[in-house]
Amino acid sequence: MIGIAVGGGVAYQLARAMDMASLKNFVPIHVAVDTKAVLGELDAHPELWGKIPYRATLKGTPHAGMQDIWFHYADPRRYAPGDLHAMTYEHIPVWYPSIKAIPSVRKIVFDLMCEVEGETIGLVMATKIKPGFGIDRHIDQGWHCQYHDKFYIPLQADANAIFGCERHGVTEEIETRPGEVWLMDNRHPHWVRNDSARDRLMLIVCIHTDKFNDFHERSN
What are the residue ranges spanned by the domains of the chain? Predict the structure, then answer.
């Protein structure tokens, strides 16, 4: 398992980079994200967590152990409340009002778009998992996950906050650290377990790009 950095010395960083490069199911994106501003904005607006509760409350959902904030996705005015299945079909996403309270997310998204040669933006959301909770093993389905790559940016993540994926019989679990960026093929089984002492906060940014086609060809 790839562990979270402690100390951050040069030798450790080199060893971690070698471990990251050996992963089969996760792709590290070699860019550092400054998380300070977005964490401050999230701390100032706790009322946004769970304001759109559908992912956590649908019957049988794997996401019952988390809360989220939606920043960019299908226009909710076009769908029946809570119809997440319909939202997975082809659509043109829009920004949600929450982005006005957490504007630092936009800079992170557009900087990442440039880094990964993105063409369009899909789902953008933040997730919060309290200690002792997680996201159950599941796969994502539908047009959205076929069309977009899903990037994960840890905003707050301590040791023992586990992110796992199984692909072609290979199971990997990693501990991410704040400011990193990871790509994972969410069409394969994946899960989260927060056994740390603090909330695990993650920014998820879905982008359509052809830059990682080789990785996805190995996924199929």
Answer: 28-219
Query: pLDDT by residue (tens digit) across 154-206?
Result: 999 999 999 999 998 999 999 999 999 999 999 999 999 999 999 999 999 99
Question: Is residue 151 within 8 Å of 112, Cβ to Cβ?
Answer: yes
Token look-up 């695990």 returns: 200
Q: What is the pLDDT of residues 61-79, one digit of tens each?
A: 999 999 999 999 999 888 8
Containing 17, the helix (H) or strand (E) segment is helix 10-21
Count CB-CB contacts under 10 A for residue 96.
19
Maximum Cα–Cα distance across the chain: 53
Measured CA to CA in angstroms, residue 174 lies from 20, 27, 63, 162, 166 at distances of 9, 11, 19, 6, 12
Q: Which CATH architecture has domain 28-219?
A: Sandwich (2.60)
What is the distance of C-alpha 160 from the center of its chain?
Answer: 17
Paired with 184 in beta bridges are: 26
